[in-house]
Amino acid sequence: MSRSASSAPALHRRPAVRALRSLLAGLLFALCTLLAISPPVHAEDFDYRLQPRELAPGAWVVVGLKEDFSFANGGNIVNTGFIVGSEGVIVIDTGSSKRYGEQMLAAIRRVTPLPIVLVVNTHQHPDHFLGNQAFPRATLAALPETIAAIRSEGEGFNANMYRLNGDWMRDTEVVVPERALAAGRQRIGGRDVELRALGGHTVADLVVIDHDSGTVYAADLLFHDRTPTTPHADIARWLAALDTLEGLPARRWVPGHGEPATDLAPLRQTRDYLGWLAQTIRAGAESGQDMTELFQTPIPPRFAGLALVNEEFRRSVVHLFPAAERAVLEAARAKASR
Prior knowledge:
The chain is of the alpha/beta class.
């Protein structure tokens, strides 16, 4: 810690009151976020207008909006993808609703008639798996930790997505993948594909590498010109995962949110922001700030181009600050007891 031993008791001033203030600040921010949601937009056709883009021969992406979930966009804020091999199609994430999954499958069919041989849910967040209904159940797969998380949290995610996106979610149900994936390199659908099991954005984050094209589908381990989200984040583990990604022989990167890239810009941008975020939250806890004070932290100008940076910073404070504050208090108690 940066404080001296003589200042440690200051961290113990009315700890229950401090904890209550932080909790109330988090609840207030969450309430303000809900109140800021736009009123329903009555879409007539509920068409996501998905436009697959071929990044390299056989490597496709559908790029989502750099926005929050809303009645206007129906949850179309995520990048999904698919890889077309000589024998079949690998799907990477299925989007935010049954409608999205159905429209994604229709978009794939406009590209190829080949069968779907594998559908990967890269992690447990709802915009990556709530389109599962549209695809053959036998093809649905994820890492074991992701399967467990979808099983335990999926219904809550689905209910919240109805509140955020309205009738875009009609008839959407949680379909839990039954097939557990393991890391490794193999031929799938006639394609040279490698699965990497990492983590940090969530408990388990699956990366899909198409070696035939040099395309890395990194899901939400990478954000590009969009602020990273942190509801299940372990920042230290996430930063370690970015180090692993940087060592891959990639020619192009597909982030979970934001534009694909042919250089390391998404990786460097994500690392820079997460490093600043972790240091800022840690420093705030060590200096005795509470959430309401930390909310006022100026965002560095170099992050001004990140979509939703102010909103996501405050959400991250709500997500991450309580644990940082507990760690500082526990360290102070341990030091005082010596």
